[in-house]
Amino acid sequence: MFFNILGEDTRTLITFALLLLPASLYIMALMKGRKGHYFFLSALAVHLVSMALRGLETGNIPLTEKHDTISFMAFSTALAYWYATGRKEMKNLDLLALSLVAALIFVSFLHMPINTVSPFMETPAFYLHTFFYFLSYGFFGIAACIGVLYMLEGNDELEGIQYRVMMHGWLFLSLSLVAGSVWFFVAHGTYWLWTSKELWTALMWFYYSLYLHARLIRGLRGRPAALLGSVGFAVALFTYFGVGTIIPSPPTQF
Q: Which of 85-94, 127-136, 150-159 has the highest mean pLDDT?
């Protein structure tokens, strides 16, 4: 393979360069009109190619360590933004959403790429788990952006869109927990361990479940529901970035 004849430092530089380009294109997509739309589609395409090249370099689906999973989280956020704006044009959402996508890509730069994969991770259930898990983060992130936009502009239609986007994220998170339990049983002989990582993942799922049910109560619709939904993304980010850093946790799968 082409990557094998390059030095490790060279491969790392290429990996970072391949992410710097889509990050720049996402920012350029803030331009209004067709140019912005074309820059956004170009960013999606280049970002997808960069992840595919990472897969060729590692010989596995690039969803096993922080550099790659954060990059995929950014890609999922961009896809969720595309989905949300395809259903309803929302002015000023691009500023919040695309800035979040670019920020996530730059956060991935803070983590050095790891090209070795544990044999315990090389199972379909694990890849399904991580795929749906970080796909849910993308929808939760865009739902939070829509909630902030609603609280700034007061357009009631935005709060309803936030709810629908959040529902998609919750479904993907639920699928990830099912696949993760299957993988955990195959790898460790049990469906669940009550480590801080698993505990906070369960709390995140219950938090979003509470939001989806609470919004059905008439008195909680509007700003209270939008605020509750937006804060949920902070809970999700803490579950991934905070647990293991601030709260000690045994080594996890990603």
A: 127-136
Other C-beta atoms closer than 10 Å to the C-beta of 137 total 28
Inter-helix orientation angle 124-153/156-188, to 10°: 160
- The pLDDT value recorded for residue 11 is 58
Instruction: Tell me the longest C-alpha to C-alpha distance in the chain.
Output: 63
**What does 108-164 look like in DSSP terms, one character per residue?**
HHTS-------GGG-SHHHHHHHHHHHHHHHHHHHHHHHHHHHHHH--HHHHHHHHH
Sign of CA dihedral 6, 9, 13, 16: positive
Measured in Å, how far apart are the chain's first and last C-alpha atoms?
Answer: 26
9: pLDDT confidence band, cut at 50, 70 and 90? low
Q: How many residues does the chain have?
A: 254
More confident residue, 224 or 133: 133
Which DSSP category does 221 fall into?
A: T
d(C-alpha 180, C-alpha 127), whole Å? 9
Going from the C-alpha of 70 to that of each of 62, 99, 212, the distances in angstroms are: 10, 15, 26
Q: Rounded to an integer, what distance in angstroms lies between the CA atom of residue 75 and that of residue 62?
A: 13
The residue whose two tokens read 């990582």 is: 197
Cα–Cα distance measured from residue 68 to residue 37, given in angstroms and rounded to the nearest whole number:
25
Residue type, 28: M
What is the model's pTM?
Answer: 0.89
Closest CA to 29 of 10, 47, 12: 47
The pLDDT tens digits for 73-109 are 999 999 999 999 887 778 889 999 999 999 999 999 8
